[in-house]
Every structure is written in C-alpha cells, then in structure tokens.
Design goal:
Elements: H1 2-12, E1 13-14, E2 17-18, E3 26-27, H2 42-50, H3 55-68, H4 70-82, H5 87-100, H6 108-119, E4 126-127, E5 130-131, H7 132-135, H8 150-165, E6 169-170, E7 173-174, H9 180-184, H10 201-215, H11 225-233, H12 235-257, E8 259-260, H13 265-274, H14 277-287, H15 295-302, H16 304-310
Parallel strand pairs: 3-8
Antiparallel strand pairs: 1-2, 4-5, 6-7
Helix pairs in contact: 3-5, 4-5, 4-12, 5-13, 5-15, 6-11, 8-10, 10-12, 12-13, 12-14, 13-15
Length: 312
C-alpha cells in the first residue's frame, strides 16, 4: 500500500479533506445489498452470550438510550452538522458498536464519570519501555515527516510498521506480528476501544487535526495518553471524533473509489467498524460493483427508518 497508495493519497488529499474526483461518481443507494444479514463473528456471539444477553436486547438498549436522552440527540445533531454528515451515520455507528461489541451503559453521565477516571490514570502508549513517540523517531519513519495532516502521518507510520517491523527482528528486538495499534496503543488490554463511540486511541490520533479544524478542540498527542483516553471517553468529544471518522470514510470513498456513500449509513457504519478506509476504497474500486455492508452495517440499514424516527 505504501508506495502506490501513498502517491495516490498525496494527489487526492487537500489539507484536511479529500479533493473532488475528476471521474463521475457512483451513488450508492440506500438499503442493503445482501438479502440476509452476513455472518456475525464468533467473538461477538461469545461476548454477548457471556453476559447472558442477546443482540436484540443490546440493540434495544442503545436505541432506547438515544431515544430517551434529548441532550444526547442534540449533541449528535450538532456534531453531524459540523462535519457535514447526516445524523443517522453517527446513530448507526453507535448502534453497531453497542449491539455487537459492547453493552451500552445505562446513563450518559456514567461516561463522563469514567472519562475523569481515565484522565487521572498514569498510562503511556508504548511497547515495553519504548514510548511510541520515541519509536517513530527512528530513521525508517523519516518519510512520514512530509505528511499533510495527522491522518496521513499515522497512516504512514502504520505502513512503515507493517513493512519494516511487524514480525521482524530489528536492532536486536523481536517485534510482535500484530497490528501497530494493538502493539503500541492498548496499555490496558489488547483490542480495547473506549467510550460511547468505542474509538481506539490510534483512530483518535489520526483524525485529531480534522477535529481541531472543525470544532476548535485541542489536538491530541501520543505523549499524553491520559488526555487521549479522556477525549474518547467523554461523550461531547467522542461524538466529534465519531463524526470525523465518518467524514473521512465518505471523502475517501468519493475521492479514491468514486463512490458517494453519503446516503447509506450501513456502509459508513461498516467502515466505522472495519477501519482502513482509504485502502478499502481502493480495493472496492478495483473489484467493481458497489460497496457492501457487513453484518454490523446490515443491521443499521435494516433499522434505519426506526432509528431516524428517534431524531425527529
């Protein structure tokens, strides 16, 4: 991905957004491409069973939390407006995360309390004794200095990790054969995401420039892990970061793939779930056909009418 795709991104990126493509856009219509829901991963099934719950019960819980909290609805609408997306995209991501990944907490206030506790924690992003901020100063990462914004910067670093370090022995250190985010950005336990939006720290760092530009929020730093955790735990700011992630997905599929996915929250929710949106846009374009929803996005499209009614 690094060589060819990085050059493509350098062309299509303009500041914090993506340039309009010179080719005709293919509008992705609303609704699901699959007649039945794609298979739900076994990890999600076992996680739900372990809590003596069901997907339907978890869906109803997050739906009812949004439905009953007018302040949360207002925050969702404001964040969506700031980033030029429909509120259903944020609602869809919330529903997908809390139906298949975690169980929603009962009250929004609980997330604020948890955010403060994470802010007071003494954590850092590192592998062993090496902070990620020192790790990326290695000469292998020098080309990333030319990155236009935080998204390109961390994407470049992630690519270098895959090529130069992942599963390899470098300078006498045997590096894990695992994702960059899991190795350096999960000090509590691997694979963990946080808060109402279930955002992981690396994703937050990727879109922090966009959030700062759109909302005036202070930019996050890998040197201040506790501030990153507080940001993605606190509902007001996590909604900003959710909207930014979705905005990046819509722009990437437009500029790189030639697809307008702005009217299909099932697709944007799928991308919110899977990540790596620019590479996925390139692959989708090369294969032909329309972007498809996964099990997570399929539910969002299936419940779209009910979810949109909540916001009216």
């Amino acid at each position: 991905m690094l060589g060819k795709v990085s050059s493509i991104l350098a062309i299509v990126m303009l500041g914090f957004g993506l340039a309009s493509p010179s080719f005709a856009l293919t509008k992705v219509p609303p609704g699901n491409r699959s007649a039945t829901q794609p298979k739900i991963p076994s990890t999600s099934v076992s996680r739900t069973r372990s809590t003596n719950s069901s997907f339907e019960a978890k869906y109803e819980k997050i739906r009812d939390l949004i439905k009953s909290d007018k302040k949360l609805q207002g925050k969702i609408k404001r964040a969506a407006k700031q980033y030029g997306i429909a509120p259903i995209h944020i609602v869809g991501a919330l529903v997908g995360e809390h139906t298949y990944n975690v169980d929603a907490l009962d009250h929004l206030q609980t997330y604020y309390v948890k955010a403060i506790s994470y802010f007071k924690s003494d954590v850092q992003f590192s592998y062993g004794d090496e902070p990620v901020s020192e790790f990326v100063k290695r000469p292998e990462f020098s080309k990333c200095k030319a990155s236009r914004d935080s998204y390109d910067l961390w994407a470049c670093r992630e690519d270098i990790w895959k090529i130069k370090f992942k599963g390899k022995t470098v300078d006498g250190v045997k590096w894990p054969n695992d994702r960059f985010g899991r190795v350096f950005f999960q000090p509590f336990y691997a694979g963990q995401t946080f808060g109402l939006g279930q955002i992981n720290p690396l994703t937050a760092l990727q879109v922090t420039d966009l959030v700062s530009k759109k909302s005036g929020k202070k930019k996050l730093s890998a040197n201040k892990a506790n501030e990153v955790y507080k940001t993605i735990m606190e509902p007001d700011t996590t909604l900003q970061y959710m909207a930014a992630v979705i905005r990046v997905s819509i722009d990437a599929y437009k500029a790189i793939g030639g697809f307008d996915i702005a009217n299909n929250p099932g697709v944007t929710s799928t991308l919110y779930n899977l990540g790596d949106v620019r590479n996925r846009a390139r692959i989708t374009k090369s294969k032909g056909g329309l972007p498809k929803e996964n099990y997570y996005g399929w539910l969002v499209n299936e419940k779209r009418t009910e979810l949109e009614a909540i916001l009216k």
